[in-house]
Amino acid sequence: MTEPPIPAARTRWSLTRHFSLTSLLGILAVTAALIGVYRQLAESNLIEHESRANADITRVFANAVWTRHGDFVGRSAGRSRDALRADPALAELHREVLQKMRGSRVAKVKVYNLDGLTIFSTEERQIGEDKSGNAGFLAARRRHRQPAPAPRPLRRIRGRDQQPRPDCVLHPAAPR
Prior knowledge:
This protein is mostly helical. The chain contains 4 helices and 3 strands; from the N terminus they run αααββαβ.
């Protein structure tokens, strides 16, 4: 038994509809892929840009404070928490850091010596903490190991309302 022939108009409609639906699905798939790639590229460029800006702010901030307080960092090795807190240079450093932070979006400053000891923090309770085993500190120390005439501290500046990230040096605060 043979089936009756299908009219030509119905065959054409079926092919047109099939082609249109397939094209629509293809366009949607390509659009979704392009959106995903663009988002990833935009995010990585933004992170790279902000990381460079944060590193520059950190360098400027450190240069402004280092000349007057670099010897405090050099004297910090092997000192206890109480000895660090009792040092009059710490109070002077704290005043100067707060002055430099005023009007900026920087909310927290921490200074470590190369042994991983927190020798300064805008949160006083953190002074004297040992971060020598912290993965973020170890990575930062490896990145910053360069011969220098004087010991250089590792710094972490963090923004308000943000969790510290061990792979970042500086986080600006969210705008108010």
